[in-house]
Design a protein that fits this description.
- The longest helix has 29 residues, at about 150-175.
- The protein is built from 9 helices and no strands.
- The chain is about 65% helix and about 0% strand.
- It is an all-alpha fold.
- The model has no long low-confidence stretch (mean pLDDT about 90).
- The radius of gyration is 21 Å and the shape is globular.
């Protein structure tokens, strides 16, 4: 049975993903912090297991380096769970969206059989890469902090810039050394899509600014709006606290 895109099977798996995360929360919400951390840590390893699986299975290591946003998210997740470091956990609230997009905009995996190991090592890691950052906050293991918006934007663009540089280096060396894949095609990578679009979402940005690396700059306002909406309750509470702490000059008897 193929996964498909926005058909009944695909939609059912999206609903299943939500149920998996909801069930995980229900099972953990009354457990000790130690148990919560242990379970989330074990689940966080699925992303790295997927990276190893892809590197071994396909025999094309340069195409499956952990340099996409979801793979970098997977590398950071175990550290985030164990340390609950505020800036990293708040950062992953943004990066987790990449995993959700990968589940929803699944065009490159649409023809995969949902009962295959290929599907399992794609689907389950993305479910937990999206859900674990949310669960960390929902379970009270970490607090959302609007002050982290700047570091989140900064680290995201730094990672994107670094990966773009790696793309250019790999592509230059592969072209110079004539490194090819098993099918004979020249190895050219596009991690974090910094070299150009591969789906309708990145394609829409490319149509506005058809320039590698820079076209993703158009996503920053969208990301900023998302972060403001995400942290709105905390920002409103802080603003009220500041107003309440101001001295009263008028109307005071």
């Amino acid at each position: 049975m193929k996964w498909g895109s926005f058909g009944s099977v695909h939609i059912a798996t999206l609903i299943l993903a939500a149920l998996i995360l909801l069930l995980t929360y229900q099972l953990l919400k009354n457990k000790s912090q130690k148990t919560q951390i242990l379970v989330l840590f074990l689940l966080s390893l699925t992303g790295n297991a997927s990276t190893i699986y892809n590197l071994v299975l396909w025999g094309e290591p340069l195409d499956y380096l952990p340099l996409h946003l979801c793979a970098i998210n997977a590398l950071l997740l175990p550290f985030a769970v164990l340390s609950r470091e505020k800036r990293v956990c708040n950062l992953l609230l943004l990066w987790s969206l990449g995993a959700l997009v990968a589940l929803v905009a699944n065009g490159v995996m649409a023809d995969v059989d949902i009962f295959s190991d290929v599907f399992f090592f794609y689907y389950m890691p993305h479910v937990f890469e999206f859900g674990i950052p949310l669960l960390l906050f929902r379970l009270g293991l970490v607090e959302k902090d609007p002050k982290c918006i700047k570091t989140t934007l900064g680290y995201t663009w730094l990672a994107y810039t670094g990966v773009y540089g790696i793309n250019k280096l790999i592509n230059f060396l592969c072209a110079a050394l004539e490194v090819t894949r098993q099918d004979g095609s020249l190895v050219q990578v596009n991690y974090m899509y910094s070299m150009g679009p591969i789906d309708p979402l990145s394609g829409a940005l490319w149509n506005i600014l058809p320039c590698e690396y820079w076209y993703m700059l158009l996503a920053l306002p969208i990301i900023a709006v998302y972060l403001v909406a995400l942290y709105a309750p905390q920002m409103i509470t802080e603003k009220k606290r500041q107003l309440d702490s101001l001295p009263v000059f008028f109307g005071k008897k």
